[in-house]
Batch of 2 targets.
Target 1
Amino acid sequence: MKTKIIIADDHLLLADGLEQILNSVPDFEVIAKVANGRLLMQALNTIVPDLILLDINMPYMNGLEAAKKIRQRMPDIKIVFLSMYFDAKLIAAAKEDGVKGFILKDIIAPLLKEKMIHIANGDTCFDLPFQKTSTTPAWQQDDFANKLKLSPREIEIIKLIKLGQGNKQISAQLSLSIYTIETHRKNIYRKLNLKGVGELIQFASEHNI
Protein backbone atom coordinates (compact mmCIF):
# COMPACT_ATOMS: atom_id res chain seq x y z
CA MET A 1 0.00 0.00 0.00
CA LYS A 2 1.41 3.38 -1.03
CA THR A 3 2.19 6.21 1.37
CA LYS A 4 -0.18 9.06 0.43
CA ILE A 5 1.47 12.48 0.60
CA ILE A 6 0.28 16.09 0.50
CA ILE A 7 2.80 18.80 -0.38
CA ALA A 8 2.09 22.23 1.11
CA ASP A 9 4.38 24.91 -0.35
CA ASP A 10 3.62 28.32 -1.84
CA HIS A 11 6.50 28.06 -4.33
CA LEU A 12 4.69 26.27 -7.14
CA LEU A 13 7.77 25.33 -9.14
CA LEU A 14 9.37 23.78 -6.07
CA ALA A 15 6.14 21.92 -5.27
CA ASP A 16 6.07 20.53 -8.81
CA GLY A 17 9.67 19.38 -8.43
CA LEU A 18 8.95 17.75 -5.09
CA GLU A 19 5.96 15.97 -6.58
CA GLN A 20 8.13 14.56 -9.38
CA ILE A 21 10.81 13.42 -6.98
CA LEU A 22 8.43 11.76 -4.52
CA ASN A 23 6.31 10.10 -7.19
CA SER A 24 9.48 8.47 -8.50
CA VAL A 25 9.56 6.42 -5.27
CA PRO A 26 7.46 3.27 -5.93
CA ASP A 27 5.83 3.33 -2.48
CA PHE A 28 4.89 7.03 -2.57
CA GLU A 29 1.93 8.81 -4.12
CA VAL A 30 1.43 12.59 -4.00
CA ILE A 31 -2.34 13.02 -3.76
CA ALA A 32 -2.49 16.83 -3.52
CA LYS A 33 -0.48 20.05 -3.59
CA VAL A 34 -1.62 23.19 -1.79
CA ALA A 35 -0.12 26.68 -1.54
CA ASN A 36 -0.86 27.62 2.08
CA GLY A 37 -2.02 26.30 5.44
CA ARG A 38 -5.62 27.41 4.95
CA LEU A 39 -5.95 25.43 1.72
CA LEU A 40 -4.29 22.48 3.43
CA MET A 41 -6.88 22.44 6.20
CA GLN A 42 -9.65 22.62 3.57
CA ALA A 43 -8.10 19.71 1.66
CA LEU A 44 -8.06 17.61 4.83
CA ASN A 45 -11.86 17.81 4.93
CA THR A 46 -12.02 15.50 1.91
CA ILE A 47 -8.71 13.59 1.74
CA VAL A 48 -6.59 11.96 4.42
CA PRO A 49 -2.86 11.56 3.69
CA ASP A 50 -0.37 9.44 5.56
CA LEU A 51 2.24 12.20 5.46
CA ILE A 52 2.35 15.96 4.87
CA LEU A 53 5.48 17.71 3.60
CA LEU A 54 4.87 21.16 5.03
CA ASP A 55 6.66 24.41 4.21
CA ILE A 56 7.03 26.56 7.32
CA ASN A 57 6.77 29.98 5.65
CA MET A 58 3.46 30.27 3.77
CA PRO A 59 0.83 33.01 3.48
CA TYR A 60 -2.57 33.05 5.25
CA MET A 61 -1.68 30.20 7.62
CA ASN A 62 1.94 29.20 8.02
CA GLY A 63 3.22 25.69 8.52
CA LEU A 64 3.62 26.04 12.28
CA GLU A 65 -0.02 27.01 12.76
CA ALA A 66 -1.22 24.35 10.35
CA ALA A 67 0.85 21.64 12.04
CA LYS A 68 -0.66 22.42 15.46
CA LYS A 69 -4.20 22.19 14.10
CA ILE A 70 -3.44 18.95 12.26
CA ARG A 71 -1.80 17.38 15.31
CA GLN A 72 -4.92 18.16 17.36
CA ARG A 73 -7.40 17.02 14.74
CA MET A 74 -5.56 14.15 13.00
CA PRO A 75 -2.64 13.02 15.19
CA ASP A 76 -1.89 9.92 13.09
CA ILE A 77 -0.75 11.98 10.09
CA LYS A 78 3.04 12.27 9.89
CA ILE A 79 4.23 15.86 9.45
CA VAL A 80 7.59 16.83 7.99
CA PHE A 81 8.65 20.48 8.01
CA LEU A 82 10.41 21.91 4.97
CA SER A 83 12.45 25.09 5.36
CA MET A 84 15.11 27.28 3.76
CA TYR A 85 16.72 27.92 7.13
CA PHE A 86 18.09 25.93 10.04
CA ASP A 87 16.55 26.91 13.39
CA ALA A 88 17.58 24.90 16.46
CA LYS A 89 14.75 26.27 18.63
CA LEU A 90 12.18 25.49 15.97
CA ILE A 91 13.49 21.95 15.60
CA ALA A 92 13.31 21.40 19.35
CA ALA A 93 9.71 22.67 19.42
CA ALA A 94 8.81 20.51 16.41
CA LYS A 95 10.13 17.41 18.16
CA GLU A 96 8.08 18.20 21.26
CA ASP A 97 4.97 18.65 19.12
CA GLY A 98 5.40 15.24 17.51
CA VAL A 99 6.59 16.42 14.09
CA LYS A 100 8.50 13.61 12.40
CA GLY A 101 11.11 15.57 10.49
CA PHE A 102 12.72 18.88 9.55
CA ILE A 103 14.32 18.98 6.10
CA LEU A 104 16.26 21.86 4.57
CA LYS A 105 15.22 22.91 1.07
CA ASP A 106 18.76 22.77 -0.30
CA ILE A 107 18.76 18.97 0.00
CA ILE A 108 19.57 16.92 -3.10
CA ALA A 109 16.86 14.64 -4.50
CA PRO A 110 18.41 11.22 -3.68
CA LEU A 111 18.89 12.23 -0.05
CA LEU A 112 15.36 13.66 0.16
CA LYS A 113 13.92 10.35 -1.05
CA GLU A 114 16.05 8.42 1.42
CA LYS A 115 14.95 10.58 4.36
CA MET A 116 11.29 10.48 3.36
CA ILE A 117 11.36 6.68 3.08
CA HIS A 118 12.83 6.45 6.59
CA ILE A 119 10.15 8.79 7.96
CA ALA A 120 7.35 6.89 6.19
CA ASN A 121 8.69 3.72 7.85
CA GLY A 122 8.43 5.22 11.32
CA ASP A 123 11.77 6.94 11.85
CA THR A 124 12.37 10.64 12.51
CA CYS A 125 14.76 12.92 10.66
CA PHE A 126 15.90 16.38 11.69
CA ASP A 127 18.41 18.05 9.37
CA LEU A 128 21.48 19.94 10.49
CA PRO A 129 23.21 22.55 8.36
CA PHE A 130 25.63 21.00 5.89
CA GLN A 131 28.70 22.62 7.36
CA LYS A 132 27.88 21.51 10.91
CA THR A 133 27.31 17.81 10.33
CA SER A 134 29.77 15.38 11.83
CA THR A 135 30.27 13.75 8.44
CA THR A 136 31.65 16.93 6.85
CA PRO A 137 35.02 16.01 5.26
CA ALA A 138 37.96 17.63 6.98
CA TRP A 139 39.08 19.39 3.79
CA GLN A 140 35.92 21.56 3.90
CA GLN A 141 36.94 22.91 7.30
CA ASP A 142 40.58 23.88 6.61
CA ASP A 143 42.08 27.13 5.37
CA PHE A 144 42.30 25.79 1.82
CA ALA A 145 38.54 25.19 1.66
CA ASN A 146 37.75 28.54 3.24
CA LYS A 147 39.93 30.26 0.65
CA LEU A 148 37.99 28.55 -2.15
CA LYS A 149 34.70 29.74 -0.63
CA LEU A 150 32.69 26.85 -2.05
CA SER A 151 29.06 27.06 -0.92
CA PRO A 152 27.04 24.00 0.21
CA ARG A 153 25.07 24.27 -3.05
CA GLU A 154 28.26 24.23 -5.12
CA ILE A 155 29.47 21.18 -3.22
CA GLU A 156 26.16 19.43 -3.98
CA ILE A 157 26.56 20.21 -7.67
CA ILE A 158 30.16 18.94 -7.68
CA LYS A 159 28.93 15.68 -6.16
CA LEU A 160 26.27 15.28 -8.84
CA ILE A 161 28.75 16.07 -11.63
CA LYS A 162 31.06 13.44 -10.15
CA LEU A 163 28.17 10.96 -10.42
CA GLY A 164 28.02 11.69 -14.15
CA GLN A 165 24.94 13.91 -14.21
CA GLY A 166 24.54 16.68 -16.76
CA ASN A 167 22.98 20.12 -16.33
CA LYS A 168 19.47 18.92 -17.19
CA GLN A 169 19.58 16.08 -14.64
CA ILE A 170 21.07 18.32 -11.94
CA SER A 171 18.41 20.93 -12.67
CA ALA A 172 15.66 18.36 -12.11
CA GLN A 173 17.33 16.94 -8.99
CA LEU A 174 17.69 20.32 -7.29
CA SER A 175 14.55 21.98 -8.69
CA LEU A 176 16.65 24.80 -10.15
CA SER A 177 16.73 26.24 -13.66
CA ILE A 178 19.38 25.04 -16.11
CA TYR A 179 20.63 28.65 -16.29
CA THR A 180 21.20 28.59 -12.50
CA ILE A 181 23.10 25.30 -12.74
CA GLU A 182 25.26 26.65 -15.58
CA THR A 183 26.06 29.74 -13.49
CA HIS A 184 27.03 27.58 -10.50
CA ARG A 185 29.28 25.45 -12.72
CA LYS A 186 31.05 28.52 -14.12
CA ASN A 187 31.62 29.79 -10.58
CA ILE A 188 32.95 26.39 -9.48
CA TYR A 189 35.44 26.24 -12.38
CA ARG A 190 36.52 29.84 -11.65
CA LYS A 191 36.99 29.28 -7.91
CA LEU A 192 38.91 26.04 -8.40
CA ASN A 193 40.81 27.27 -11.49
CA LEU A 194 39.75 24.19 -13.46
CA LYS A 195 39.20 23.93 -17.21
CA GLY A 196 36.63 21.17 -17.61
CA VAL A 197 34.59 18.36 -16.14
CA GLY A 198 37.51 15.91 -16.20
CA GLU A 199 39.62 18.16 -13.98
CA LEU A 200 36.63 18.78 -11.72
CA ILE A 201 35.98 15.05 -11.22
CA GLN A 202 39.67 14.51 -10.50
CA PHE A 203 39.60 17.36 -7.95
CA ALA A 204 36.47 15.90 -6.29
CA SER A 205 38.05 12.46 -6.03
CA GLU A 206 41.33 13.79 -4.64
CA HIS A 207 39.49 15.82 -1.97
CA ASN A 208 36.87 13.19 -1.08
CA ILE A 209 33.86 15.23 -2.20
Target 2
Amino acid sequence: MTQQSTSKAKPRISRDVMVASICGFVVAFMVGASYAAVPFYDWFCRVTGFNGTTQVATSAPEKSLERRIAVRFDSNVSGGLPWKFQPEQTEISVKIGEVVTVYYTVTNQAARTTTGVAAYNVAPLTVGAFFQKINCFCFTEQSFGPGEKREMAVVFYVDPALAADREYDDLNTITLSYTFYPVKDPAPKPLAATETDKRKGNL
Protein backbone atom coordinates (compact mmCIF):
# COMPACT_ATOMS: atom_id res chain seq x y z
CA MET A 1 0.00 0.00 0.00
CA THR A 2 2.79 2.38 0.89
CA GLN A 3 4.72 1.51 -2.25
CA GLN A 4 1.70 2.26 -4.44
CA SER A 5 1.20 5.69 -2.78
CA THR A 6 4.86 6.52 -3.34
CA SER A 7 4.75 5.49 -6.96
CA LYS A 8 1.66 7.64 -7.56
CA ALA A 9 3.21 10.72 -5.90
CA LYS A 10 6.26 10.79 -8.20
CA PRO A 11 4.38 11.78 -11.41
CA ARG A 12 2.56 14.50 -9.50
CA ILE A 13 5.87 16.01 -8.31
CA SER A 14 7.20 15.91 -11.87
CA ARG A 15 4.12 17.67 -13.18
CA ASP A 16 4.44 20.34 -10.47
CA VAL A 17 8.06 20.97 -11.42
CA MET A 18 7.12 21.18 -15.08
CA VAL A 19 4.28 23.64 -14.43
CA ALA A 20 6.52 25.78 -12.23
CA SER A 21 9.22 25.79 -14.91
CA ILE A 22 6.75 26.81 -17.62
CA CYS A 23 5.37 29.61 -15.42
CA GLY A 24 8.89 30.84 -14.71
CA PHE A 25 9.69 30.85 -18.42
CA VAL A 26 6.50 32.78 -19.22
CA VAL A 27 7.24 35.39 -16.55
CA ALA A 28 10.83 35.78 -17.77
CA PHE A 29 9.61 36.11 -21.35
CA MET A 30 7.06 38.78 -20.40
CA VAL A 31 9.65 40.77 -18.46
CA GLY A 32 12.09 40.56 -21.36
CA ALA A 33 9.38 41.55 -23.82
CA SER A 34 8.47 44.60 -21.76
CA TYR A 35 12.09 45.81 -21.84
CA ALA A 36 12.36 45.10 -25.57
CA ALA A 37 9.08 46.85 -26.38
CA VAL A 38 10.48 50.39 -26.14
CA PRO A 39 13.46 49.97 -28.50
CA PHE A 40 11.34 47.84 -30.83
CA TYR A 41 8.62 50.52 -30.94
CA ASP A 42 11.26 53.20 -31.61
CA TRP A 43 12.76 51.08 -34.41
CA PHE A 44 9.32 50.39 -35.87
CA CYS A 45 8.43 54.10 -35.90
CA ARG A 46 11.69 55.07 -37.56
CA VAL A 47 11.38 52.44 -40.26
CA THR A 48 7.71 52.95 -41.06
CA GLY A 49 7.17 56.61 -40.18
CA PHE A 50 4.39 55.50 -37.80
CA ASN A 51 3.01 58.18 -35.47
CA GLY A 52 4.62 60.97 -37.46
CA THR A 53 8.20 59.81 -36.91
CA THR A 54 10.43 61.27 -39.59
CA GLN A 55 13.20 59.40 -41.39
CA VAL A 56 16.95 60.01 -41.25
CA ALA A 57 18.61 60.51 -44.63
CA THR A 58 22.33 60.24 -45.37
CA SER A 59 22.22 61.93 -48.77
CA ALA A 60 20.06 64.17 -50.94
CA PRO A 61 17.82 62.86 -53.73
CA GLU A 62 19.17 63.05 -57.28
CA LYS A 63 16.55 65.56 -58.41
CA SER A 64 13.56 67.57 -57.20
CA LEU A 65 10.07 67.72 -58.67
CA GLU A 66 8.09 70.74 -59.79
CA ARG A 67 5.31 69.95 -57.37
CA ARG A 68 5.47 72.15 -54.29
CA ILE A 69 4.23 71.60 -50.79
CA ALA A 70 3.94 73.95 -47.80
CA VAL A 71 5.93 73.01 -44.70
CA ARG A 72 4.88 74.64 -41.45
CA PHE A 73 7.05 74.80 -38.35
CA ASP A 74 5.72 74.47 -34.83
CA SER A 75 7.62 74.91 -31.56
CA ASN A 76 6.75 74.03 -27.97
CA VAL A 77 8.48 74.07 -24.58
CA SER A 78 7.46 71.71 -21.81
CA GLY A 79 6.86 73.06 -18.30
CA GLY A 80 9.93 73.56 -16.15
CA LEU A 81 12.18 74.73 -18.97
CA PRO A 82 12.58 78.55 -19.04
CA TRP A 83 13.30 78.81 -22.76
CA LYS A 84 11.93 80.86 -25.60
CA PHE A 85 11.82 78.58 -28.62
CA GLN A 86 10.51 79.57 -32.02
CA PRO A 87 11.09 79.01 -35.75
CA GLU A 88 12.57 81.88 -37.76
CA GLN A 89 9.88 81.17 -40.38
CA THR A 90 6.50 79.69 -39.60
CA GLU A 91 5.92 78.36 -43.12
CA ILE A 92 7.81 77.90 -46.39
CA SER A 93 7.02 76.46 -49.80
CA VAL A 94 9.40 73.75 -50.99
CA LYS A 95 9.72 71.54 -54.04
CA ILE A 96 9.37 67.84 -53.36
CA GLY A 97 12.92 66.46 -53.30
CA GLU A 98 14.49 69.88 -52.63
CA VAL A 99 16.98 70.01 -49.75
CA VAL A 100 16.08 72.87 -47.42
CA THR A 101 17.73 74.38 -44.34
CA VAL A 102 15.60 76.19 -41.77
CA TYR A 103 16.45 77.60 -38.36
CA TYR A 104 14.88 77.63 -34.94
CA THR A 105 15.96 80.17 -32.31
CA VAL A 106 16.35 79.19 -28.67
CA THR A 107 16.89 81.63 -25.80
CA ASN A 108 17.54 80.60 -22.21
CA GLN A 109 15.57 83.10 -20.13
CA ALA A 110 16.95 81.85 -16.82
CA ALA A 111 19.84 83.28 -14.81
CA ARG A 112 21.42 79.84 -14.66
CA THR A 113 22.55 77.16 -17.10
CA THR A 114 19.70 74.92 -18.21
CA THR A 115 19.55 71.82 -20.38
CA GLY A 116 16.83 70.46 -22.63
CA VAL A 117 16.26 67.80 -25.26
CA ALA A 118 13.90 68.02 -28.23
CA ALA A 119 11.48 65.45 -29.61
CA TYR A 120 9.59 65.86 -32.87
CA ASN A 121 6.95 64.54 -35.21
CA VAL A 122 5.18 65.56 -38.39
CA ALA A 123 1.52 65.89 -39.32
CA PRO A 124 -0.29 64.27 -40.99
CA LEU A 125 1.18 61.38 -39.03
CA THR A 126 1.39 59.06 -42.04
CA VAL A 127 3.69 61.50 -43.87
CA GLY A 128 6.56 60.71 -41.49
CA ALA A 129 7.74 57.99 -43.86
CA PHE A 130 8.38 60.63 -46.55
CA PHE A 131 9.89 63.41 -44.43
CA GLN A 132 13.65 62.92 -44.60
CA LYS A 133 15.94 64.78 -42.19
CA ILE A 134 19.63 65.10 -43.00
CA ASN A 135 20.53 67.06 -39.88
CA CYS A 136 18.71 68.36 -36.80
CA PHE A 137 19.10 69.09 -33.09
CA CYS A 138 16.63 66.47 -31.85
CA PHE A 139 17.37 63.83 -29.20
CA THR A 140 20.66 65.52 -28.27
CA GLU A 141 21.02 67.33 -24.96
CA GLN A 142 21.34 71.08 -25.47
CA SER A 143 22.80 73.19 -22.65
CA PHE A 144 22.44 76.97 -22.57
CA GLY A 145 24.18 79.44 -20.31
CA PRO A 146 22.31 82.25 -18.55
CA GLY A 147 20.57 84.40 -21.19
CA GLU A 148 22.25 82.53 -24.06
CA LYS A 149 20.62 82.65 -27.48
CA ARG A 150 21.39 80.23 -30.29
CA GLU A 151 20.25 79.36 -33.81
CA MET A 152 19.65 75.68 -34.45
CA ALA A 153 19.42 74.26 -37.97
CA VAL A 154 17.20 71.59 -39.48
CA VAL A 155 18.11 70.21 -42.92
CA PHE A 156 15.45 68.14 -44.64
CA TYR A 157 13.63 67.22 -47.84
CA VAL A 158 10.30 65.65 -48.76
CA ASP A 159 10.92 62.30 -50.44
CA PRO A 160 9.89 62.26 -54.13
CA ALA A 161 8.28 58.88 -53.42
CA LEU A 162 5.41 60.83 -51.86
CA ALA A 163 4.39 62.12 -55.30
CA ALA A 164 4.12 58.56 -56.58
CA ASP A 165 1.62 57.61 -53.87
CA ARG A 166 -1.89 58.51 -55.04
CA GLU A 167 -3.05 58.69 -51.43
CA TYR A 168 -1.21 62.02 -51.12
CA ASP A 169 -2.39 63.66 -54.34
CA ASP A 170 -4.37 66.23 -52.33
CA LEU A 171 -1.72 66.80 -49.67
CA ASN A 172 -0.72 70.47 -49.63
CA THR A 173 0.76 71.00 -46.16
CA ILE A 174 3.10 69.21 -43.77
CA THR A 175 3.69 70.43 -40.22
CA LEU A 176 7.00 69.75 -38.48
CA SER A 177 6.61 70.08 -34.72
CA TYR A 178 9.34 70.18 -32.04
CA THR A 179 8.94 70.11 -28.27
CA PHE A 180 11.82 70.76 -25.85
CA TYR A 181 11.75 68.92 -22.53
CA PRO A 182 13.88 69.77 -19.47
CA VAL A 183 16.80 67.54 -18.55
CA LYS A 184 17.25 67.49 -14.78
CA ASP A 185 20.53 65.55 -14.70
CA PRO A 186 22.45 66.31 -17.90
CA ALA A 187 25.26 64.01 -18.92
CA PRO A 188 28.62 65.33 -17.67
CA LYS A 189 30.85 66.88 -20.30
CA PRO A 190 34.43 65.59 -20.69
CA LEU A 191 37.10 67.64 -18.99
CA ALA A 192 38.81 70.16 -21.23
CA ALA A 193 42.26 69.17 -22.38
CA THR A 194 45.20 70.83 -20.66
CA GLU A 195 47.58 73.04 -22.60
CA THR A 196 50.13 70.20 -22.58
CA ASP A 197 47.56 67.78 -24.01
CA LYS A 198 46.60 70.28 -26.70
CA ARG A 199 50.21 70.69 -27.79
CA LYS A 200 50.68 66.94 -27.91
CA GLY A 201 47.57 66.65 -30.07
CA ASN A 202 49.02 69.15 -32.55
CA LEU A 203 52.30 67.33 -32.97
